[in-house]
Input
Amino acid sequence: MAKLSEKIGYGLGDFSSSMFWKIFMYYIMFFYTQVFGLTLEDATLLILVTKLWDAVSDPLMGVIAARTSTRWGKYRPYLLWIAIPFAVCGVLTFTTPTFGYAGKVIWAYCTYVLMMTVYTAINVPYGAMLGVMSADSKERNIFSSYRMFFAYAGSFVSLMIFGPLCNLFSSHNNLTSDGNIQLSSEPQAWQMTMIVVGSICAIFFLLSFFLTREHVKVDNKQTENHSSVGRDIKLLVRNAPW
Output
């Protein structure tokens, strides 16, 4: 029977993921068009390109993670390896450089594509980790329940603190006459806010690594004998739902 600390630890991983994901969903277009300085057309194309890249990077990361073998397991090490890059890329994505427009476009593509790549690099193994945390299907369901609870909690917390943090780091008060918070358009306020959020996410990913274990061992040699990267890709191409 898994310890409560391990269930909480697993949930903390999705707490971190959901914090970043909600910020991307709710604020990335506002940031690129109202703070960073991109046109709506360029910002929309940027988002489209990153989504197309996701369609390629997700299965590739699955192939890589499935063939990983360390003393910590197959999937859990990525929580340790990618936690800090995850936070750093988040900060860089919400950083506005003092470039001309073309330079800003290049910066936006490089940082956002890198952010989505790092997001995939930690979340695909994290999701796959559920299958090796317990051989008991009922216990895996419990782990999954903890994961979903913390995912909703992370979404709530990110939306609750983002506006006030932007206002805190802004050089002027962004409260409207009716007491609501109006998002700051100052680049440094967004950067500082993401430093705080990214730090929280990195800490929780690291806690997720230290509090969890992979209890089901998978034989990498057996996997390699019966599969290959080329065969995996062929199966994906032939998979109609995918």
Remarks:
- Residues 38 and 112 are 13 Å apart (CA to CA).
- The chain has a mean pLDDT of 91.
- The chain has eight helices and no strands.
- The helical segments are 4-36, 40-66, 77-93, 101-128, 137-169, 187-211, 220-226, 229-238.
